[in-house]
């Protein structure tokens, strides 16, 4: 059954340009989880399958708002995907094979990409069903992250923008994070009474942590939102990184705060020495604030998985309030 936004007639033309007449489209299934782009599994009459990404306004559940400055502006788009895919592929970090990336809209009415359907499940599932195998996979992921984080640039920003010579319109990574965190506090305050009561305390905590951060002038390649659900297991057991549009040059501490939050007890194999403690303190608070403000904003619209999104906001608000209540 077709999902919303898929034009099967026009899709046939796109598929013909990729596969010729060798395959007939048999099924289109919308996959859960995409909030900024449509993600569909395409099944063919010869048993082959592929994943279709569709970037369009109708596939983006986030309500309209004033655009955030880079590098935190909306991390979606075919151009961001293409630059990120190319960069990771050149570094030897496994990503789904790209069959076609089409921004011409001459074959299909939206920007689209057709990529490999990696059917081995997620690292998140592997960690639950096979802890020993999951531990080995975490070691391999740690190696891939060290390759990524060893790739540096003199400017911060999403890969596509840095390649074009565009830079972050902020004094530094920590300034961009600080400004964003303060905006998130304001957004939370108008949506949640507890956030409103704690607003002054939250503002003070962000500014105090930001003041302790020393300047830096070199930035490392990070995924930005790498959780165990954004790593798939390939046909030979290799790890495949997905949801890569937000790939950017930034402080590596931002990556590690997110990794620690999402991998929880599985974070140890990913931990590295030499991280800046002051950045970690600021970015930990800012990350939790983003995971309150973002889901609450998403719930202003018609995002379908509302219970899960509300749960994310509630959990992270509790974390935020605990952080600013703790001594030191």
Which fold name corresponds to the CATH topology of the largest domain? Aminoglycoside 3'-phosphotransferase, Chain: A, domain 2
Number of strands: 11
| Shape designation | globular
Task: Give me the strand/helix succession.
Answer: HEEEHEEHHEEHHHHEEEEHHH
| Structural class estimated from helices and strands | alpha+beta
Helices and strands in order:
Layout: H1 8-19, E1 25-30, E2 38-44, E3 49-55, H2 78-91, E4 98-102, E5 111-116, H3 123-129, H4 131-149, E6 152-153, E7 157-158, H5 159-163, H6 173-189, H7 193-197, H8 199-211, E8 219-222, E9 231-233, E10 239-241, E11 248-250, H9 252-263, H10 277-298, H11 306-325
Antiparallel strand pairs: 1-2, 2-3, 3-5, 4-5, 6-8, 7-11, 8-11, 9-10
Question: How would you characterize this protein structure?
Answer:
With 328 residues, this protein is α+β, with helices and mostly antiparallel strands. It folds into 2 domains: 8-116, Phosphorylase Kinase, domain 1 (2-Layer Sandwich); 123-325, Aminoglycoside phosphotransferase (APH), C-terminal lobe (Aminoglycoside 3'-phosphotransferase, Chain: A, domain 2, Alpha-Beta Complex). It contains 11 helices and 11 strands. The chain has helices at residues 8-19, 78-91, 123-129, 131-149, 159-163, 173-189, 193-197, 199-211, 252-263, 277-298, 306-325; strands spanning 25-30, 38-44, 49-55, 98-102, 111-116, 152-153, 157-158, 219-222, 231-233, 239-241, 248-250. The chain has a 5-stranded antiparallel beta sheet with strand order 1-2-3-5-4. The longest helix is centred in the C-terminal third of the chain and has 22 residues, at 277-298. The radius of gyration is 20 Å and the shape is globular. The termini are far apart. 38% of the residues are buried.
């Amino acid at each position: 059954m077709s999902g919303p936004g898929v034009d099967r007639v026009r899709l046939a033309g796109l598929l013909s340009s990729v596969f010729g007449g060798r395959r007939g489209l048999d099924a289109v299934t919308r996959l859960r989880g995409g909030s900024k782009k449509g993600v569909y599994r395409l099944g063919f009459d010869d048993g082959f399958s592929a994943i279709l990404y569709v970037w369009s306004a109708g596939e983006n559940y986030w309500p309209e708002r004033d655009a955030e400055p880079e590098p935190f502006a909306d991390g979606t788009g075919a151009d961001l995907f293409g630059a990120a895919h190319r960069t990771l592929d050149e570094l030897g970090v496994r990503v789904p094979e790209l069959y076609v990336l089409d921004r011409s809209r001459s074959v299909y009415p939206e920007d689209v990409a057709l990529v490999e359907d990696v059917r081995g499940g997620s690292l998140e599932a592997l960690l639950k069903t096979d802890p020993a195998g999951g531990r080995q996979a975490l070691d391999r992921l740690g190696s891939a992250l060290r390759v990524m984080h060893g790739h540096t640039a003199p400017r911060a920003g999403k890969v596509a923008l840095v390649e074009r010579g565009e830079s972050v319109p902020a004094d530094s990574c920590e300034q961009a994070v600080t400004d964003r965190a303060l905006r998130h506090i304001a957004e939370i305050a108008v949506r949640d009474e507890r956030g409103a009561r704690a607003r002054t305390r939250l503002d003070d905590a962000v500014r105090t942590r930001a003041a302790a951060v020393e300047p830096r002038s070199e930035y490392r390649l990070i995924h930005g939102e790498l959780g165990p659900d954004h790593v798939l297991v390939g046909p030979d057991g290799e790890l495949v990184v997905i949801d890569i549009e937000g790939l950017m040059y930034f402080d590596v501490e931002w990556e590690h705060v997110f990794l620690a939050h999402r991998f929880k007890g599985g974070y140890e194999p990913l931990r590295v020495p030499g991280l800046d403690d002051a950045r970690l303190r600021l970015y930990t608070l800012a990350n939790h604030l983003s995971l309150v403000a973002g889901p609450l904003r998403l719930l202003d619209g018609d995002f379908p998985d509302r219970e899960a999104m509300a749960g994310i906001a509630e959990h992270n608000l509790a974390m935020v309030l605990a952080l600013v209540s703790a001594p030191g």
